[in-house]
Please model this.
Amino acid sequence: MEPPVRSGATVTTNAARVLAHPSREEIRVEGVLHALSDPIRLRIVRQLAGATDEQACSRFDLPVSKSTTTHHFRVLRENGVIAQFYRGTAKLSCVRTEDLDALFPGLLDSVLAGVDLQAERLGRAGASSPAPAGKP
Model:
Protein backbone atom coordinates (compact mmCIF):
# COMPACT_ATOMS: atom_id res chain seq x y z
CA MET A 1 0.00 0.00 0.00
CA GLU A 2 1.23 3.49 -0.78
CA PRO A 3 2.11 5.82 2.12
CA PRO A 4 -0.32 8.59 3.03
CA VAL A 5 -0.18 11.90 1.26
CA ARG A 6 0.34 14.73 3.72
CA SER A 7 -0.89 17.99 2.26
CA GLY A 8 -1.84 21.09 4.16
CA ALA A 9 -4.69 20.61 6.58
CA THR A 10 -5.45 16.96 5.87
CA VAL A 11 -3.78 13.61 5.64
CA THR A 12 -5.40 11.36 3.07
CA THR A 13 -5.03 7.79 1.95
CA ASN A 14 -6.24 5.96 -1.09
CA ALA A 15 -9.11 4.57 0.99
CA ALA A 16 -10.81 8.00 0.90
CA ARG A 17 -11.06 8.19 4.71
CA VAL A 18 -9.94 11.68 5.63
CA LEU A 19 -9.09 13.01 9.07
CA ALA A 20 -8.94 16.76 9.71
CA HIS A 21 -5.54 18.16 10.67
CA PRO A 22 -4.49 21.77 11.08
CA SER A 23 -1.97 22.99 8.53
CA ARG A 24 1.43 24.01 9.89
CA GLU A 25 0.35 27.66 9.76
CA GLU A 26 -2.74 26.91 11.87
CA ILE A 27 -0.86 25.25 14.76
CA ARG A 28 -0.74 27.48 17.84
CA VAL A 29 1.54 27.11 20.84
CA GLU A 30 -1.39 27.39 23.27
CA GLY A 31 -3.12 24.48 21.53
CA VAL A 32 0.03 22.35 21.61
CA LEU A 33 0.55 23.12 25.30
CA HIS A 34 -3.08 22.31 26.02
CA ALA A 35 -2.78 18.99 24.21
CA LEU A 36 0.40 18.14 26.12
CA SER A 37 -1.02 19.19 29.50
CA ASP A 38 -2.88 15.92 30.09
CA PRO A 39 -0.93 12.95 31.53
CA ILE A 40 -2.59 10.44 29.20
CA ARG A 41 -1.86 12.55 26.12
CA LEU A 42 1.75 13.01 27.27
CA ARG A 43 2.01 9.24 27.59
CA ILE A 44 0.73 8.82 24.03
CA VAL A 45 3.18 11.39 22.62
CA ARG A 46 6.04 9.90 24.61
CA GLN A 47 5.33 6.45 23.13
CA LEU A 48 4.93 7.82 19.60
CA ALA A 49 8.13 9.88 19.87
CA GLY A 50 10.06 6.77 20.89
CA ALA A 51 8.69 4.65 18.05
CA THR A 52 10.51 4.06 14.79
CA ASP A 53 7.30 4.12 12.73
CA GLU A 54 3.61 4.93 12.93
CA GLN A 55 1.66 3.27 15.73
CA ALA A 56 -1.87 1.88 15.64
CA CYS A 57 -4.18 3.09 18.40
CA SER A 58 -4.50 -0.52 19.55
CA ARG A 59 -0.77 -0.51 20.49
CA PHE A 60 -1.44 1.80 23.43
CA ASP A 61 -2.21 0.29 26.82
CA LEU A 62 -3.97 3.20 28.50
CA PRO A 63 -5.90 3.16 31.79
CA VAL A 64 -8.99 4.72 30.19
CA SER A 65 -11.94 3.55 28.10
CA LYS A 66 -11.80 3.27 24.31
CA SER A 67 -13.96 6.36 23.89
CA THR A 68 -11.70 8.39 26.18
CA THR A 69 -8.64 7.12 24.29
CA THR A 70 -10.27 8.29 21.06
CA HIS A 71 -10.88 11.70 22.62
CA HIS A 72 -7.22 12.04 23.65
CA PHE A 73 -5.97 11.14 20.16
CA ARG A 74 -8.44 13.64 18.65
CA VAL A 75 -7.21 16.46 20.92
CA LEU A 76 -3.61 15.72 19.92
CA ARG A 77 -4.52 15.61 16.22
CA GLU A 78 -6.70 18.73 16.23
CA ASN A 79 -3.95 20.73 17.96
CA GLY A 80 -1.28 19.65 15.47
CA VAL A 81 0.77 17.43 17.77
CA ILE A 82 0.14 14.19 15.87
CA ALA A 83 -0.89 13.13 12.39
CA GLN A 84 -3.30 10.23 11.91
CA PHE A 85 -4.25 8.25 8.85
CA TYR A 86 -5.92 4.99 8.00
CA ARG A 87 -4.10 1.97 6.64
CA GLY A 88 -6.77 -0.62 6.03
CA THR A 89 -8.94 -0.58 9.14
CA ALA A 90 -6.12 0.56 11.44
CA LYS A 91 -5.79 4.21 12.38
CA LEU A 92 -2.07 4.99 12.59
CA SER A 93 -0.49 7.91 14.40
CA CYS A 94 2.85 9.70 14.40
CA VAL A 95 4.18 12.87 16.02
CA ARG A 96 4.39 15.90 13.73
CA THR A 97 7.99 16.46 14.79
CA GLU A 98 9.04 18.37 11.68
CA ASP A 99 6.15 20.85 11.96
CA LEU A 100 6.51 21.31 15.72
CA ASP A 101 10.29 21.80 15.52
CA ALA A 102 9.90 24.34 12.71
CA LEU A 103 7.28 26.33 14.63
CA PHE A 104 8.52 25.93 18.22
CA PRO A 105 12.17 24.82 18.15
CA GLY A 106 13.03 22.59 21.08
CA LEU A 107 9.56 22.64 22.65
CA LEU A 108 8.68 18.98 22.13
CA ASP A 109 12.16 17.77 23.07
CA SER A 110 12.09 19.89 26.24
CA VAL A 111 8.66 18.63 27.28
CA LEU A 112 9.61 15.00 26.68
CA ALA A 113 12.93 15.45 28.50
CA GLY A 114 10.99 16.97 31.40
CA VAL A 115 8.68 13.95 31.46
CA ASP A 116 11.71 11.65 31.62
CA LEU A 117 13.31 13.69 34.44
CA GLN A 118 10.02 13.64 36.33
CA ALA A 119 9.84 9.87 35.93
CA GLU A 120 13.34 9.52 37.38
CA ARG A 121 12.58 11.93 40.21
CA LEU A 122 9.36 10.16 41.14
CA GLY A 123 10.77 6.69 40.52
CA ARG A 124 8.05 5.76 38.04
CA ALA A 125 8.65 4.65 34.47
CA GLY A 126 5.33 6.17 33.38
CA ALA A 127 5.47 9.48 35.23
CA SER A 128 3.27 10.93 32.52
CA SER A 129 0.50 8.66 33.78
CA PRO A 130 -1.67 9.71 36.69
CA ALA A 131 -0.13 9.39 40.14
CA PRO A 132 -1.78 7.08 42.66
CA ALA A 133 -4.39 8.71 44.90
CA GLY A 134 -2.78 10.94 47.50
CA LYS A 135 0.56 11.18 45.61
CA PRO A 136 1.77 14.30 43.76
Summary: Residues 131-136 have pLDDT under 50 and may be disordered. The chain is about 40% helix and 15% strand. Residues 107-122 form the longest helix (16 residues). The CA atoms of residues 12 and 30 lie 26 Å apart.
